[in-house]
Amino acid sequence: MRFGKCLVSGAACALLVIGSAANAAVVVTNIQDVAPAGGNPGDPYTPSAFTASSSDLLSGLTPLSVTGNTTQEGAVGVSKWTNGSIATLYAKQPNTGQNLIDNHVPYGTLTANPTLQPPTTAQVVYDLGGLYNLSSADVFAGWNDSGRDLFSFTLEASPDNVNYSQIGSFNKNGDNTGAITTPVTTKIDFVDDGGSSIASGVRYVRLTATDTDNGYAGMVEFDVNGTPAPEPGSLAVLGLGAVMMMRRRRR
Description:
The protein has one helix at residues 232-250, and strands at 2-6, 13-18, 26-34, 44-45, 65-67, 88-89, 108-111, 122-143, 151-158, 165-170, 184-192, 199-212, 216-228. By secondary structure, it is mainly β. It has one domain (26-250): Sandwich (Jelly Rolls), CATH 2.60.120. A hairpin with a 6-residue loop joins strand 1 (2-6) and strand 2. The longest helix has 19 residues, at 232-250.
Protein backbone atom coordinates (compact mmCIF):
# COMPACT_ATOMS: atom_id res chain seq x y z
CA MET A 1 0.00 0.00 0.00
CA ARG A 2 1.49 3.36 -0.99
CA PHE A 3 0.76 6.90 -2.02
CA GLY A 4 2.84 9.96 -2.87
CA LYS A 5 2.47 13.70 -2.68
CA CYS A 6 4.87 16.33 -3.99
CA LEU A 7 6.28 18.47 -1.22
CA VAL A 8 8.63 20.54 -3.42
CA SER A 9 7.13 22.08 -6.53
CA GLY A 10 8.62 20.77 -9.77
CA ALA A 11 11.27 18.72 -7.94
CA ALA A 12 10.72 15.73 -5.70
CA CYS A 13 7.91 13.82 -4.05
CA ALA A 14 7.70 12.41 -0.53
CA LEU A 15 6.43 8.88 -1.01
CA LEU A 16 4.78 7.14 1.90
CA VAL A 17 5.33 3.40 1.73
CA ILE A 18 3.56 0.93 4.04
CA GLY A 19 5.46 -2.36 4.11
CA SER A 20 8.65 -1.69 2.19
CA ALA A 21 9.22 -5.11 0.64
CA ALA A 22 6.84 -6.84 -1.73
CA ASN A 23 6.76 -10.03 0.34
CA ALA A 24 6.79 -8.33 3.76
CA ALA A 25 3.88 -7.45 6.02
CA VAL A 26 3.26 -5.46 9.17
CA VAL A 27 2.67 -7.86 12.06
CA VAL A 28 0.71 -6.86 15.17
CA THR A 29 1.40 -8.76 18.39
CA ASN A 30 0.40 -8.16 22.01
CA ILE A 31 1.63 -9.26 25.43
CA GLN A 32 -0.12 -8.69 28.75
CA ASP A 33 1.46 -8.02 32.14
CA VAL A 34 -0.68 -8.56 35.27
CA ALA A 35 0.60 -7.34 38.62
CA PRO A 36 0.75 -9.99 41.37
CA ALA A 37 -1.81 -9.94 44.14
CA GLY A 38 -0.86 -8.59 47.55
CA GLY A 39 0.17 -5.05 46.75
CA ASN A 40 -0.92 -2.37 49.20
CA PRO A 41 -3.32 0.29 47.90
CA GLY A 42 -1.30 3.08 46.31
CA ASP A 43 1.89 1.00 45.98
CA PRO A 44 3.74 1.57 42.70
CA TYR A 45 4.01 -1.25 40.17
CA THR A 46 6.10 -1.35 36.99
CA PRO A 47 5.36 -4.12 34.47
CA SER A 48 8.17 -6.67 34.20
CA ALA A 49 7.16 -8.32 30.91
CA PHE A 50 8.33 -5.38 28.76
CA THR A 51 9.81 -1.88 28.84
CA ALA A 52 9.10 1.42 27.11
CA SER A 53 11.52 3.76 25.33
CA SER A 54 12.44 7.20 26.63
CA SER A 55 14.28 8.15 23.43
CA ASP A 56 11.81 7.27 20.66
CA LEU A 57 10.48 9.75 18.09
CA LEU A 58 7.48 10.69 20.28
CA SER A 59 9.49 11.15 23.49
CA GLY A 60 8.26 14.29 25.25
CA LEU A 61 6.00 15.34 22.36
CA THR A 62 2.57 16.88 22.82
CA PRO A 63 -0.06 15.73 20.29
CA LEU A 64 -0.78 18.00 17.36
CA SER A 65 -4.47 17.29 17.92
CA VAL A 66 -6.66 15.19 20.22
CA THR A 67 -10.36 14.32 20.21
CA GLY A 68 -12.08 12.73 23.19
CA ASN A 69 -11.61 13.10 26.93
CA THR A 70 -8.07 12.19 28.07
CA THR A 71 -8.60 12.90 31.79
CA GLN A 72 -11.49 10.66 32.84
CA GLU A 73 -11.54 9.64 36.54
CA GLY A 74 -8.51 11.74 37.44
CA ALA A 75 -6.27 10.48 34.62
CA VAL A 76 -3.51 13.01 33.94
CA GLY A 77 -3.91 13.08 30.16
CA VAL A 78 -1.62 13.31 27.14
CA SER A 79 1.61 14.05 29.04
CA LYS A 80 1.67 10.44 30.27
CA TRP A 81 1.70 9.00 26.74
CA THR A 82 5.21 10.14 25.82
CA ASN A 83 7.11 10.36 29.12
CA GLY A 84 8.90 7.01 28.73
CA SER A 85 7.28 5.46 31.82
CA ILE A 86 4.85 2.56 32.04
CA ALA A 87 4.76 2.56 35.85
CA THR A 88 1.31 2.16 37.38
CA LEU A 89 -0.01 1.55 40.91
CA TYR A 90 -2.30 -0.66 42.94
CA ALA A 91 -5.75 0.90 43.24
CA LYS A 92 -6.90 2.50 46.45
CA GLN A 93 -10.13 0.88 47.59
CA PRO A 94 -13.26 2.80 48.68
CA ASN A 95 -13.28 1.28 52.16
CA THR A 96 -9.83 2.66 53.00
CA GLY A 97 -10.98 6.26 53.01
CA GLN A 98 -8.22 7.14 50.50
CA ASN A 99 -8.79 9.47 47.59
CA LEU A 100 -9.76 7.38 44.56
CA ILE A 101 -8.79 10.21 42.22
CA ASP A 102 -5.15 9.17 42.70
CA ASN A 103 -5.72 5.75 41.13
CA HIS A 104 -5.39 6.89 37.54
CA VAL A 105 -2.51 9.37 37.57
CA PRO A 106 -0.33 7.03 35.41
CA TYR A 107 -2.75 7.28 32.49
CA GLY A 108 -4.35 9.34 29.80
CA THR A 109 -7.77 8.08 28.69
CA LEU A 110 -9.30 7.41 25.28
CA THR A 111 -13.10 7.62 24.96
CA ALA A 112 -14.75 5.43 22.35
CA ASN A 113 -18.05 3.56 22.29
CA PRO A 114 -19.33 1.86 19.12
CA THR A 115 -22.73 1.09 20.72
CA LEU A 116 -23.76 4.74 20.98
CA GLN A 117 -25.71 6.48 18.23
CA PRO A 118 -23.74 7.92 16.62
CA PRO A 119 -20.70 5.85 17.68
CA THR A 120 -17.92 7.80 19.40
CA THR A 121 -14.21 7.54 18.65
CA ALA A 122 -11.06 9.12 20.05
CA GLN A 123 -8.15 10.27 17.91
CA VAL A 124 -4.64 11.55 18.54
CA VAL A 125 -2.20 12.91 15.93
CA TYR A 126 1.54 13.46 16.41
CA ASP A 127 3.81 15.57 14.21
CA LEU A 128 7.31 14.05 14.08
CA GLY A 129 8.72 17.33 12.75
CA GLY A 130 10.31 15.75 9.66
CA LEU A 131 10.19 12.70 7.44
CA TYR A 132 11.07 9.36 9.02
CA ASN A 133 11.22 5.69 8.12
CA LEU A 134 9.46 3.89 10.95
CA SER A 135 10.93 0.63 12.25
CA SER A 136 8.28 -0.14 14.89
CA ALA A 137 5.46 1.28 16.99
CA ASP A 138 4.34 0.26 20.48
CA VAL A 139 1.10 1.16 22.23
CA PHE A 140 0.86 0.43 25.98
CA ALA A 141 -2.73 0.21 27.22
CA GLY A 142 -3.68 -0.35 30.85
CA TRP A 143 -5.62 0.39 34.04
CA ASN A 144 -5.57 -0.50 37.74
CA ASP A 145 -7.76 -3.51 36.92
CA SER A 146 -9.43 -5.07 33.89
CA GLY A 147 -12.37 -2.66 33.95
CA ARG A 148 -10.91 -0.17 31.44
CA ASP A 149 -7.57 -1.63 30.47
CA LEU A 150 -7.83 -2.15 26.72
CA PHE A 151 -9.10 -0.56 23.51
CA SER A 152 -9.41 -1.33 19.80
CA PHE A 153 -7.65 1.07 17.45
CA THR A 154 -6.13 1.74 14.05
CA LEU A 155 -2.63 3.13 13.48
CA GLU A 156 -2.02 5.31 10.42
CA ALA A 157 0.81 7.34 8.88
CA SER A 158 1.00 10.35 6.58
CA PRO A 159 3.62 12.60 4.98
CA ASP A 160 1.34 15.67 4.97
CA ASN A 161 -1.46 15.26 7.58
CA VAL A 162 -3.96 15.01 4.72
CA ASN A 163 -3.42 11.64 3.05
CA TYR A 164 -3.23 8.79 5.55
CA SER A 165 -2.55 5.11 5.04
CA GLN A 166 -3.14 2.41 7.62
CA ILE A 167 -0.10 0.70 9.15
CA GLY A 168 -2.21 -1.81 11.07
CA SER A 169 -4.99 -2.28 13.61
CA PHE A 170 -5.69 -3.99 16.91
CA ASN A 171 -8.96 -5.55 18.12
CA LYS A 172 -9.42 -5.95 21.88
CA ASN A 173 -12.16 -8.59 21.38
CA GLY A 174 -14.33 -9.19 24.46
CA ASP A 175 -14.53 -7.23 27.72
CA ASN A 176 -13.21 -9.02 30.83
CA THR A 177 -14.29 -6.48 33.46
CA GLY A 178 -13.94 -7.94 36.94
CA ALA A 179 -11.64 -10.78 35.89
CA ILE A 180 -8.46 -8.99 37.04
CA THR A 181 -8.31 -6.84 40.19
CA THR A 182 -4.63 -5.78 40.04
CA PRO A 183 -2.87 -3.43 37.59
CA VAL A 184 -2.92 -4.81 34.04
CA THR A 185 -0.89 -3.45 31.12
CA THR A 186 -0.82 -4.66 27.51
CA LYS A 187 1.87 -3.86 24.95
CA ILE A 188 0.67 -3.84 21.33
CA ASP A 189 3.61 -4.00 18.94
CA PHE A 190 3.75 -3.18 15.20
CA VAL A 191 6.77 -4.51 13.28
CA ASP A 192 7.63 -5.66 9.76
CA ASP A 193 8.03 -9.44 9.55
CA GLY A 194 10.89 -9.01 7.11
CA GLY A 195 12.83 -6.65 9.35
CA SER A 196 12.16 -3.62 7.14
CA SER A 197 10.31 -0.39 7.87
CA ILE A 198 6.63 -0.53 8.78
CA ALA A 199 6.23 2.79 6.94
CA SER A 200 8.60 5.11 5.06
CA GLY A 201 8.43 8.85 4.42
CA VAL A 202 6.27 9.52 7.50
CA ARG A 203 5.83 12.85 9.27
CA TYR A 204 2.46 12.37 10.99
CA VAL A 205 1.25 9.40 13.05
CA ARG A 206 -2.45 9.01 13.88
CA LEU A 207 -4.05 6.64 16.40
CA THR A 208 -7.83 6.25 16.37
CA ALA A 209 -9.56 4.35 19.19
CA THR A 210 -12.77 2.70 17.98
CA ASP A 211 -13.86 0.62 21.00
CA THR A 212 -12.98 0.62 24.71
CA ASP A 213 -13.91 -1.32 27.81
CA ASN A 214 -16.91 0.46 29.40
CA GLY A 215 -16.75 3.61 27.31
CA TYR A 216 -13.17 4.67 27.95
CA ALA A 217 -9.78 3.07 28.62
CA GLY A 218 -6.32 4.05 29.76
CA MET A 219 -3.20 4.41 27.65
CA VAL A 220 0.07 4.66 29.56
CA GLU A 221 2.63 5.09 26.74
CA PHE A 222 2.96 5.44 22.95
CA ASP A 223 6.37 4.77 21.34
CA VAL A 224 7.31 5.20 17.68
CA ASN A 225 10.81 4.26 16.52
CA GLY A 226 12.56 5.13 13.28
CA THR A 227 15.31 6.98 11.44
CA PRO A 228 15.31 10.15 9.34
CA ALA A 229 14.25 9.69 5.73
CA PRO A 230 15.99 11.54 2.86
CA GLU A 231 14.54 15.01 2.44
CA PRO A 232 12.75 15.77 -0.87
CA GLY A 233 15.62 18.04 -1.95
CA SER A 234 18.11 15.22 -1.42
CA LEU A 235 15.94 12.86 -3.44
CA ALA A 236 15.86 15.40 -6.28
CA VAL A 237 19.67 15.64 -6.27
CA LEU A 238 19.98 11.86 -6.28
CA GLY A 239 17.52 11.63 -9.16
CA LEU A 240 19.41 14.28 -11.16
CA GLY A 241 22.69 12.48 -10.54
CA ALA A 242 21.23 9.23 -11.84
CA VAL A 243 20.02 10.97 -14.99
CA MET A 244 23.46 12.51 -15.60
CA MET A 245 25.14 9.12 -15.17
CA MET A 246 22.79 7.56 -17.71
CA ARG A 247 23.54 10.34 -20.22
CA ARG A 248 27.29 9.88 -19.80
CA ARG A 249 26.97 6.15 -20.38
CA ARG A 250 25.00 6.71 -23.55
CA ARG A 251 27.68 9.06 -24.88
